[in-house]
Design a protein that fits this description.
The chain has 7 helices and 12 strands. It is an alpha+beta fold.
């Protein structure tokens, strides 16, 4: 009979008594359990992780190599008993066997994808219309693409935004932005990471803006339906004025937060905030968005983006806003 959560106290007691055993003992115990057949191997894996949790990667990998046919059962029961190690367990299982090993059963396509490293990205493609105010006063079309990938302790984000407006043969809105971010988990709630961002806004008063940042983050809330993250750190910023051609290069401080709330029928409210504090100016941006599903892979999104520059280039306004209504297609 497989172990379940009611056995954890007994597991812990047995684990402490074996804490000082030789490093090879766990592998030997797994081999012996595998030879017994039945549920012995799965039970031995759970006991080994409880005894030496920091060796969870090696324990899972050894067990999967011993009995590849029971890989799914090993992963499923280990995830259930040790949810805090879920990513490490699945990563170790997915990489335990050589690439020539038989593919994972169709019952767990997410592990098969992880093993081949082909389908780890998730993306949203949003197309819609916008109302722009501030340095540009116009209606515009826009395209937003966001992609994320989570693998073990690493989290990657890519984003591209394009807003374009034209009337009476005159371009009156043009803004492009590319952003790349990577985060590495230090613990369940803390992480460190970096950001690269390029902005080209033809009506901001700058030819271009570049940002290279590094920060430390903390996840205040981190659940499936509610999340709040704060991040702070130093950055480098380059700005070139489109009027004078002058370029500023400075070290600045960056503070950011990211909030999400998933509620009725998988609707999602998000708010992304950032402030860049430098000697030449302080830039603040806040994006509030509401996304509601309308079909299997399609959603509608309404958003408001507000940007402020404390000391804009000569002839430019301090505030810009863009209000968007978009159709979103999700790629999983």
């Amino acid at each position: 009979m497989p172990l379940n959560h009611h056995h954890l106290p007994a597991i812990a007691a047995m684990g402490f008594s074996l804490l000082l055993s030789f490093p090879a003992a766990a592998a030997y115990e797994l081999e012996a359990a595998n030879a017994k057949g039945g549920d012995a191997l799965v039970n031995a894996v759970i006991l080994a992780i409880a005894r030496k949790p920091m060796e969870v990667d090696d324990i899972i990998a050894d067990a999967v190599r011993l009995n590849p046919a029971r890989r799914m059962e090993i992963v499923s029961k280990s995830d259930e008993m040790f949810p805090g190690f879920k990513e490490r367990i699945e990563h170790a299982a997915a990489n335990a066997l050589p690439e020539t090993a038989a593919p994972l059963p169709t019952a767990a396509p997410e592990l098969a994808a992880d093993a081949t490293r082909l389908d780890g990205w998730k993306a949203d493609v949003a197309l819609g219309a916008a109302q722009v105010t501030g340095n540009s006063q116009s209606q515009a079309v826009n395209l937003d693409v966001k992609a994320t990938k989570d693998r073990a302790n690493w989290h990657h984000k890519l984003a591209a935004t394009a807003d374009y407006g034209r009337s009476d043969y005159v371009t009156n809105a043009r803004r492009y932005q590319l952003t790349g971010e990577s985060e590495y988990d230090l613990s369940k709630r803390t992480y460190t990471g970096g950001i690269l961002q390029y902005t080209d806004d033809g009506f901001s008063g700058y030819d271009y803006e570049l940002l290279e940042g590094f920060g430390y983050g903390y996840r205040i809330y981190d659940s499936k339906d509610l999340g709040l993250t704060v991040e702070a750190g130093p950055s480098l910023r380059q700005q070139r004025s489109s009027g004078s051609g002058d370029q500023t290069n400075e070290i600045i401080g960056r503070i950011a937060s990211d909030f999400y709330w998933v509620f009725a029928n998988k609707s999602k409210l998000t708010n992304e905030f950032s402030i860049l504090i430098g000697s030449s100016n302080t830039q603040t941006e806040n994006n509030l968005a509401l996304t509601a599903p309308v079909a299997d892979s399609f959603s509608l999104r309404a958003s408001l983006d507000v940007r402020n520059n404390s000391h804009p280039p000569l002839g430019s306004k301090a505030y810009d806003t863009i209000t968007k209504l978009q159709l979103v297609y999700s790629l999983q």
